[in-house]
Amino acid sequence: MFTKVGTWTDPHGVTHTDAVFQMAHANFSQDTSSGDSFILDISDGFGNMKPTETTNQGDNNNGLNYKVYYWASQTSKDNGDMPFTLMNHDGAAYSDSIHVTGLGAEYDGLTAEKKADKHCQEIIIL
Q: Are β-strands 61-71 and 88-89 bridged in parallel, bridged antiparallel, or unpaired?
């Protein structure tokens, strides 16, 4: 959970001061698959076969998905008021989930929730 100190205008055009944000859910996955390949090159036509070996050290593909609730203030949250859901618009459709790929090394070692908090604060909520 974090508080956006200062003014922030939500997607509906409403300006908030000290809005409170909390992750509804966050999940992170990472694919560090690696593998080898072997290709026999017989392109010179003289029977001089040349093996080529390559090693893939892994693509380090990652993905973060998260959903964010927000309240106009800490008082609103403490009073049990219903939160707003931060919506994402990718140009084609609206979604209540934010999907990010290719996170940098500055996210290493953080939990999924902390990754989502960091991304939301530094990229989404400006």
A: unpaired
Can you give the pLDDT at residue 37? 53
**Can you tell me the distance from the alpha carbon of 28 to that of 114, in angstroms, rounded to the nearest whole number?**
11
**Close Cβ partners of 87 (under 8 Å, ≥ 6 residues apart):** 11, 94, 95, 96
* Whether this model's pTM surpasses 0.85: no
Give the separation between CA 93 and CA 87, rounded to whole angstroms: 10
Residue, of 124 and 48, whose pLDDT is higher = 124
For the chain, the domains span 2-29+64-124
Among the listed residues 14, 29, 37, 23, the one whose alpha carbon sits nearest the alpha carbon of residue 121: 23
Q: Judge whether 103 and 69 are in contact, CB under 8 Å.
A: no
Burial class (CB in 10 A: 0-12, 13-18, 19+), 20: buried
Residues 63 and 99 sit within 8 Å (Cβ to Cβ): yes
Write the CB contacts of 50 (distance below 8 Å, at least 6 apart in sequence). Answer: 40, 41, 44
Write the CA distances from 24 to 82, 113, 126, integer angstroms: 13, 9, 20
